[in-house]
Queue: 3 jobs
Job 1
Amino acid sequence: MDRRTLLKVMLNGIVMPVVPLKIAKAYADKGRRLLLVELSGANDGLNTVVPITDHRYRELRPNIGLKPSEVFDIGGGFALHSAIKSLDHMWQDGELAIVQGLGYPGANRSHFKSIALWETGGDGNRSRRTGWLTDDIESMNASAELDAHGISLDGGMGVFVSPGGLWLSMASAQEFSRLSSQVIKKTTSDNAALNMLLDRWNTLNSSMEKISRKLSRKSQINFRVRGRKLAAQLGTAAQLIHAGIDAPVIKVQLDGFDTHEGQPGRHRRLLRELGRSLGDFRNGMKRIGQW
């Protein structure tokens, strides 16, 4: 499946393991935002969405395969890890969907190469120069009026790599205000190359100032997302949405999924944090009318 096909799959809720949407149209028509949650380190998909009735699952995973008591059934011979039981009500309400079998031929076993391939929608042999969703977002109607095309809250750009567009990476809402006062103010130069760089700085500064103003005018969200690093990022995402920041895509990350020794226990703890944090985020956003 290429990245164009992936973007055309229309879904209404959270999707595991990825969230493919025709994002630009969804945002333009209904104001929907895409929240990308990266499970960094490579999540164990077979122990998340479990083919519980397939005998090959037991044969291939005699030691780390999950027992029926460790999952909850979702029908069709599949089950979800019990650690994300908190998301069951989303499944029952039709807010959770699952896309299986996503990948590319000749999977690359290098972590770094694989990350580059998934971030850019590469074909398995080479990665592209831009993120898999940047072109669609930048070409949407009224794109120039957005506060940002996308905001990463995990400290990196990755999937937002683009030679153009306005893609931001921030660690907290407070950082928008702090950095907006430090960016070079609007200026120009007779040097064409330098002028291009300054133009990017000016655009960035304008975006940061708009976001900072919106955040300062809006009260803090009145709900708490439980957890650690992911919870903090989701809390910031909620505050950005609550403040009316115009950005179609927000990205967060939960790392630690490069599990080897003690895989069952470590994976369970990570999924429990994922389920709890996403559940709290969903419930809180419902309370403020943003879900």
Job 2
Amino acid sequence: MRDISRVIETDASLTLKLLRVANSPLYAIRSEVNTVHQAIINLGLNRLTNIVLGVSIFSKFLLASQQVSPKVIERFWFHSSCTGMVAKSLSIKLNRFFKEYEFIGGLLHEIGKLAMIQFDGPKYMEVIKLIENEHYDDITAEKKIFEISHCEVGEAIAKLWKLPKEMSDVIGFHHTPSQSEKFTDLVATVRLADLLTELWDAGFYEGLSMAELSETDAWKILLNHTPELDAMDLEAFTFELEQDFKNSTLFLSLISS
């Protein structure tokens, strides 16, 4: 563990952001964490590894493109952070534990969109116009303009960066969770969180015609493996999401400064 600590500590900016997150209310650690080694002990190696990965990628893409309005980028990251926070709350509610992949997967699930914006911001604004003005869904609009979807772009990036298969599946299959062979429940959890953020008007140009959540593939997959979902008061749960949105704002402030 000390070798891992030393590697992380060679990046002062990453270390600072990691310690900010570790000491934040997001993880409710009782004693103050002052070193990366302490963070590993308190958070666990798997959780810390995923946090480091998420923070690193977030920082890399934070200012993704100067070709589009900063409000578009801010909306993207708020949606992504909200999805991660809601996925985390949802997994706790359902007593499912995904080693922080649900949070980091939620944070990065639409990284393909950000890559497309970075590649050609004005062209992606054409996608947004189709969604807003002609009621396209995001994938159909992307394929019309780019001839490829953000899921395909994101999955290619995940493979290029050699991200864990769990994250690759979330990024590539969050619209179609059943296509994930090994991590269907994880992908479905992130997808359900994604849909819940849409309900709370914290989406990012998905162009959804919002169906009843209980009719979505994500819900059916989770219900099949987690029967207690059927007894869950989803309406009450959605009202609890306000704290997740506050935590999203906190998380963004911790790692963007």
Job 3
Amino acid sequence: MINVLANNMVYTSLGFAMAVIFFLLTIVFSLSNYRTKQGRNYSFLNEFPYELSQGVEQRFVIYLYFSQMMQALGFVLFGFYAFVDLAHYFGIILIVSWTLTALLGASIFFVKLRSMKGHIAIVACLITFTLVNAVFLGIYIFKTIYLDAPLILPIICWILAAIVAFLAINPALKRWPFMDKIEQQDGTIIILRPKFFVLAYTEWAIIFINMLLLLVGFIAYFFI
């Protein structure tokens, strides 16, 4: 039993480290290269995740895709070795949702908005599975092998679930394609993306929430 727990801890820690390191590599390198190539700063509030990867030099794109796939692999690896109590239905739901979230989270960096139906479908599924992750991770911590974990951990999960639910029902999402129109003195109209582009910042919020859930799950794991 001790050997099993030790092996699980190794793979859980490895999965967590892979997910975090490759996520940070993706963000930090992409932001730096984006600024160099585009001559301006990237905005998390009105630009999509796929635009971050598209904004870097073409020769680096393949490395960003590789980094995203490694992050997804780490996310999945963590789930398989951290959520080992599958005797309860919520454990099974969590591991399935967690795995699908990893795949969708990586694909959101690849699928462009030109494929609008595909992109929206991925975002909708990602939001749904993130909500499932938050709710059931809280239940998993509260009711299974993490009985000694601080109560604050499942509470954090459920707070994040409430945030995801709010993002999902945000009325502004229905109007996400609307652009700002600025009329020039000569009568011409310039169409600009809003400073706060609801679909773009929602996608980034979901990505960061999943990373927070990963951190909460990792902390809870050490209370086995």
